[in-house]
Amino acid sequence: MTHNHEASTGSIFVQFYRDAVKILMHPKAFYESMPEQKDQQAIKIFLVLSALLYSVAATFFVREQQLVFLFLFFLNGFLMPFIIAATLYLVLYFLKVGMVYRVALGITAYANTALLFAWIPGMGPFAELFRYYLIGVGIVQVTGLNGWKAFFVLLGMAAVLLLLIYFLQMLIAN
Description:
- With 174 residues, the protein is mainly α.
- The chain has one domain (9-173).
- The chain has helices spanning 9-25, 27-37, 40-59, 66-94, 101-110, 115-118, 124-143, 147-173.
- The chain is globular, with a radius of gyration of 16 Å.
- Mean pLDDT is 89; it is low at 1-6.
């Protein structure tokens, strides 16, 4: 977003809007410049704002316990990019593709732009597919892998996430 740590709230929202529009319109160009131009604070601000917008909008469709759902929607929107980034990093590590975790987090955090549509009834699955498309574009642009290799990285990530869910279910069931 901005390297000025005393940025006004208005400029933070303006930068969020600019980044979201650039990701939606030109994801390749955005991810090409992401590692050099985006610092960790900017990534976290984008992540918080996208999760906040998603959770507030999604809560409009909840009739009871709105605060509970607001909190759960926010946790989902905020924490999933960290989990997905960890799986991305893990898969790329095993494939011996060099990437640091903070870059993987940047890719997945900016793919959170898909949440801007996920709150619309019926759009959740499409938004999630769009999120993984954006992650795939980020993988290609940042690592230099071709589209097919990035696709197989995404499949590897899906396998790791499914295994994680399976083991969590086993822990909860016992």
